Amino acid sequence: MTDPVLEVRDLVKHYPVRNGLFRRSVAAVKAVDGVSLRLDRGRTLGLVGESGSGKSTLARVLVGIEKPTSGQVLVDGEDVLHLSRAGRKQLRRDVQMVFQDPYTSLNPRMSVTEIVGEPFAIHGIDPAGGRRAAVGELLELVGLDPDHANRYPHQFSGGQRQRVGIARALALRPKILVCDEPVSALDVSVQGQVINLLEDLQAELGLSYLFVAHDLGVVRHIAHDVAVMYLGRIVELGPEGDVYDAAQHPYTQALLSAVPVPDPSVRLVTTGAPVTTPVEGGVSTDPTRAVGAIVLEGDPPSPVDPPSGCPFHTRCWLAPTLPEAQPDTSASGPPAGRPGTGLRLVPTVCETEVPALVPRHGDGRPGVPEAPGTAPADEAAHVVACHFARELVAHRVEA
Ligand SMILES: Nc1ncnc2c1ncn2[C@@H]1O[C@H](COP(=O)(O)OP(=O)(O)OP(=O)(O)O)[C@@H](O)[C@H]1O
């Protein structure tokens, strides 16, 4: 049975853009623009997307560092945004954050005892056996020597500092850890150790993780479910295997196709993706990029003025903009797609408003997506905010 520990419903976080003498709000940065997702107890939800897509903003809102503009956040079914003061305090205990940079997130003037014990002081908690003993236990839990508790952050390596950060996050026995790029500042050799530690802690303590990362390889390793974010919205969400092996949204396909592979001659297979690699004379000029990678042109549009309809349509390699991509209405069969893609075309759909992407259970409760590939009962269904891709998949299955 699925057991959501965290549910996010239509969450919005806009930052005002101020101008003029009176600093009036003239526009808004739509950092998070209607996000819905669900994190099940004891599981890890990976959150991926390009820089600026809104991942950190979402993470900060979930741990209560920032207030959302609108929307709902439910922890164990309780709407935490409308809690009493005591309720908010409890939320701060239930949802903790592991920060990206263990070099800047630890106060260099505080000893490890003070850093890890700080949450006790803030919340006025005196653990049984005393704070010093509790800190020692936490250090042991994360694989550090309790005898080093009086040392300062600069006396530890990057990986050890991140362990200190994890120990601090665990001090109040949270239910959820929001991990914002927790290993991206670490050497590759150390990343694995920290990931393994997080997995062990999850198994031991039943923790649930929202794991924000750029590195799709790391997310594939640790996440049970994956959400893909673009320009403040989730564009695809589903079980890890579905998203990685049968990505449906063109943006996800592009992200996955750009994952470096050791052998540049290896052709990556992406669902129906035309080969648009940066090649010269048929040979990839970038040894880290596989032939077959989908290169997204340009930067993401500004979150101050995102495109109408699907926010990705201005960079979408599937968007039906070519003249030959017009539907053949004279034929009785499905309209023709782009030459060579074998894909059915759904005209103008990218311009139409994309409804909020709501994660579904796969057990027939309302709103289970009709697209094929719906996950079995009690798993997060695979949902994708691209009608065009959905139509394509449906057509392929029919064919
Ligand atoms: N305090 C703020 N005031 C105004 N705009 C902000 C603020 N914080 C973030 N933004 C903007 O919101 C958008 C999303 O930023 P965010 O840092 O959440 O993205 P991200 O996906 O986490 O990127 P990265 O991976 O680089 O951290 C960006 O356009 C960013 O400039």
TrEMBL record:
GO terms for molecular function: ATP binding. The keyword Protein biosynthesis does not apply. Residues 323-342 are annotated as: Disordered. Pfam families: ABC_tran, oligo_HPY. Keywords: ATP-binding, Nucleotide-binding, Transport. Residues 6-256 form the ABC transporter domain. Belongs to the ABC transporter superfamily. This is ABC transporter ATP-binding protein.
